[in-house]
Amino acid sequence: xxxxxxxxxxxxxxxxxxxxxxxxxxxxxxxxxxxxxxxxxxxxxxxxxxxxxxxxxxxxxxxxxxxxxxxxxxxxxxxxxxxxxxxxxxxxxxxxxxxxxxxxxxxxxxxxxxxxxxxxxxxxxxxxxxxxxxxxxxxxxxxxxxxxxxxxxxxxxxxxxxxxxxxxxxxxxxxxxxxxxxxxxxxxxxxxxxxxxxxxxxxxxxxxxxxxxxxxxxxxxxxxxxxxxxxxxxxxxxxxx
Length: 241
Description:
The strands form two sheets. The chain has a six-stranded mixed beta sheet with strand order 6-7-8-3-9-10, with helices on both faces. 32% of the residues lie in helices and 29% in strands. The longest helix is centred in the last third of the chain and has 18 residues, at 179-196. By secondary structure, it is of the alpha/beta class.
């Protein structure tokens, strides 16, 4: 990755056809994200932030322009290569947690590692570390129905970072959480960003998340309306009210 650039988009356009109507979700978006950033794509519903996050995560491809993620051109990736990139190098955190209900917290966190061919001992070490990072080592045997919303989201974070990915993408990760749990989740992600050097990119319109960002990219109608680094005094580090 040249000069520590993890993500680079150049005049990125994404169009969708709904019947005879053409919807332009992204309009010539050019951005760079570097290793270790804690950044957010911010805007209301329909602004294009989730579409952009999906392209960065290789879940979608541009209509025109380009997106380079971890040195790979997204528009040129085969489905198999895109899946390999995601499974090895990108972690995902969703607002609905997406935990497998029949599995324990430990098994949910272990699941991504099963695709990597690691030994059981290596998997055990990585899962134990990940659960300790998010403060849930004592809930390893609990199933999702036995966990609170905040605990479930922390399991989802552990699952996203268990393979120590270079990039974690979080789509409205606090949407289903109250202020106290949102604070705990965000502090956990700030700590992981600091300790592991993982790049975090959020898609959000939640002020609770925005207060923690160190970079804010505002999208309006598919275009970048503002891109700025937040000053230290603007970054919320105290308990949410």
